[in-house]
Specification:
12 helices, Rossmann fold
Length: about 325
């Protein structure tokens, strides 16, 4: 059964002030909220939704360069996924279903605001699984998808599990969330030095974005910050059927990733390499190439977003990254 996000919404227009515990907005733009979801919006033009990655301290801060670049030609929306940023961080069951239904709710709101125009979506890392599932379930909502360092294509294991199944490790969430140590454990795992360490592993370099580090450090100290990450750490947000989902995508898909750090294993990319609607680019960066090489990343993104939907890849073979 799908999680329900009621159609009735409440919006707070304009910039949002810092909270009492010093958690300022991650992006420069209007922030609106409805049904426990928070989203930034700026610019004019066709709609584009940005989805940040999922980790111990994620938020829309991770898509800041994308938001700032694309607002000049698109109406750009950047949502905080459930359990992150300014979205609801309650103690509930976080799952691919919850996250996908949040994307459905946001796409419905975006289309309402943008005269029912189909949406271009860009997702980073694990959120690419949620975006892909949403696009398979409601294909009319989405005109094209950009996946940056998507998960589910590592190793050689086929991931054609039962529909909706996950990679949750039995008993691990119960262990991590045990009340006696849950909060202390999370605080230990999200100390500023630890957040820096994991960002360095994401970059494959010590030259991380310091503004992002500061945002993620603050995000991990907000009330309820541990609930979604503990489900992530237990494997419960990863889909065991994601190869089935990726294969069912009919929209043009641009996939990109880097060559440094922890997110470089794409040995299962062959699942989608032969599909005519997929295109691939490799950057000599870590997992977030738009931070490191914007002068290379953005022209490719812009070209992908400009292509007519019906002929996105006509006359052009999908380019396979050279390893």
């Amino acid at each position: 059964m799908n999680t329900q996000f009621p159609a009735t919404t409440e919006r707070s227009a304009g910039s949002t002030s810092s909270s009492a515990n010093d958690f300022p907005p991650a992006l420069a733009g209007e922030r609106f909220t409805f049904d426990g979801l928070s989203c930034y919006v700026a610019g004019q033009g066709p709609p584009l939704l940005l989805l940040h990655s999922v980790n111990a301290a994620g938020s829309a801060a991770e898509v800041r360069p994308l938001f700032n670049h694309c607002r000049s030609s698109r109406t750009v929306f950047a949502m905080d996924l459930p359990g992150y940023g300014f979205s609801e961080r309650s103690d509930r069951h976080y799952s691919p279903r919850l996250m996908t239904d949040a994307v459905h709710a946001m796409s419905a709101e975006i289309r309402r605001r943008c005269d029912m125009a189909p949406i271009a979506g860009l997702a980073v890392s694990l959120s690419g699984e949620f975006l892909a599932r949403a696009a398979v379930e409601r294909p009319a909502d989405w005109e094209r998808l950009a996946l940056v360092s998507p998960t589910g294509l590592d190793g050689h294991k086929a991931r054609w599990g039962a529909p909706g199944s996950t990679r949750r490790i039995p008993g691990l969430h119960a262990l991590l969330s045990f009340p006696l140590w849950s909060e202390a454990l999370f605080r230990l795992l999200t100390r500023p030095a630890v957040v820096r360490y994991f960002l360095q592993r994401t970059w494959g370099s010590k030259a991380i974005d310091e503004t992002l580090w500061a945002c993620e450090t603050r995000s991990a100290r907000q009330p309820g910050a541990r609930y979604a990450p503990l489900h992530f750490m237990s494997g419960g947000l990863f889909s065991a059927d994601i190869h089935r989902v990726y294969e069912r995508l009919t929209q043009p898909v641009w996939m990109s990733h880097g060559v440094r750090g922890d997110f470089t294993d794409y040995r299962s990319q062959g699942v989608v390499e032969a599909r005519s609607n997929w295109r691939f680019d490799l950057f000599r960066t870590g997992a977030l190439p738009y931070f490191e090489l914007p002068e290379q990343f953005f022209p490719k993104l812009d070209a992908f977003l400009r292509r007519p939907q019906r002929s996105a890849f006509v006359g052009e073979a999908s380019r396979h990254p050279r390893r």
